[in-house]
Amino acid sequence: MAKTSLLRPLAVAAAGAVLVATGALPAAAAGQDAADPTAPDLAGVQAALQATTAAGAPGAFAVIRDHGAVDRTRSVNVGLADLDGTPMNSSWKFRVGSNSKMFTAVLVMQLAEEGRIDLDRPLREYLPEGTLPETWTMTGRQVMEHRAGVYDHTNDLLEQAGEETTSAFEARIRTNVYDPRALVAMSVKHGVQYTPGTRYSYSNTDFVLMALAVEHLTGQPFAEVLNERIIQPLGLRKTSFVVPEQGMSGAHVTGYLTNDDRAKPLLDSTAQTGSWVWAAGAVISTAEDLDRFLGALMAGGNGGLVSDASLQQMTAALPTPTAKISYGLGLRRISLSCGDVYGHGGIVQGFNTQSFTTQDGRRSVVVFANASNNGSVTQGLMNTLEPAFCGKKPAAAPRTGFAPASVPVDSLPVVEDTRI
């Protein structure tokens, strides 16, 4: 079985061109490459990133990787990696937030291929006894699709009335260590929110449950399974899951939590256990590793992660209430003007990421900002995806007569995982 996606060189700069912009872009890189009609609009990407930093993030970056006969990487960095004045560095580690759900979903699909879990049977059958009530009949598939009616336990940790987000972080998030079953218990006490399968509602508890099933079925801690089945086989040298350790080893971007009172300074939130979201949001990685993971995933049976049949299930995304956004099994689909892209977003205190790829894996885009609790920052990142994937838009035709102005709106909506 060919595994071409696993053989990509780690140093892609040697194979192609790397364009790094910290201020004005070089003239040749400012727009679309004349020799490549599919080239990203780097000027548009930079403008979106600058809007992201103007909205309150110290820094931001976009890494656009093309894979084919010759790999090519384009990077755009703006602003700072920390408030000490270090320039943003797109090769450094960061917390990927809900991008972690893609990793958890792959592990579940692998176990399904091995016949160890049936995604169309009640999930409680594959969990430690007593994790879910006997009357809860939602299936693993419904849980992975966020269509199970499972209350999101993070509501109880973040949104108590009258409490500052930064206060909640210091009181219940930064140093607290939660048993994953305790997180599920927070959810269960609220009861089933709606009849499973009848609607979509994003819930971090869904992927805590799926990871508990992974542990129960393998008899191993989640971190070990992740390492043995994904990190080591793909050679993701800068990816880790270290819950409940608070620190990040090696070169990494500093994350900042925005105060609800914008007059107050940003809070360095880099050190945190990640325990409160566990397998739903605590993976640490880099843009390069996320590209390698997405490439292997979208290669299906040739990628070494999941079969073609499993990938087809994961990408069979269903509509959500958010325009242009659909959700499959741990994968989000975004409909752009040039086609659909697959991946996930992730926001965990101080770290804000969007990681997507074309279905054929030929282009991946990872965009990042080191601030959270700020919807304008997230919107800025979402606005990089259209120019990064689809390139520069043709000039609009001039209006004639008294025709009303028609301005195309390519802005993508901010989706619900901004809540963490």
Features:
disordered N terminus, alpha+beta, 15% strand, Beta-lactamase, globular, 13 strands, eight-stranded antiparallel sheet, single chain
Task: Walk me through what this model shows.
This protein has 420 residues and is an alpha+beta fold. The chain has one domain: DD-peptidase/beta-lactamase superfamily (Beta-lactamase), CATH 3.40.710. The chain is 28% helix and 15% strand. The chain has 11 helices and 13 strands. The strands form 3 sheets. An 8-stranded antiparallel beta sheet has the order 2-1-12-11-10-9-8-7, with helices on both faces. Strands 5-4-13 form a 3-stranded mixed beta sheet. The longest helix is centred in the last third of the chain and has 16 residues.
State the helix count: 11
Query: What strand order characterises the main sheet?
Result: 2-1-12-11-10-9-8-7
Tally of separate domains = 1
* Architecture per CATH nomenclature, i.e. the level-2 architecture: 3-Layer(aba) Sandwich
Which secondary-structure class do the elements indicate? alpha+beta
Number of separate strands: 13
- SSE topology string: HEEEHHHHHHHEEEHHEEEEEEEH
CATH superfamily: DD-peptidase/beta-lactamase superfamily
Oligomer: single chain
The CATH class is Alpha Beta
Any idea what the shape is? globular
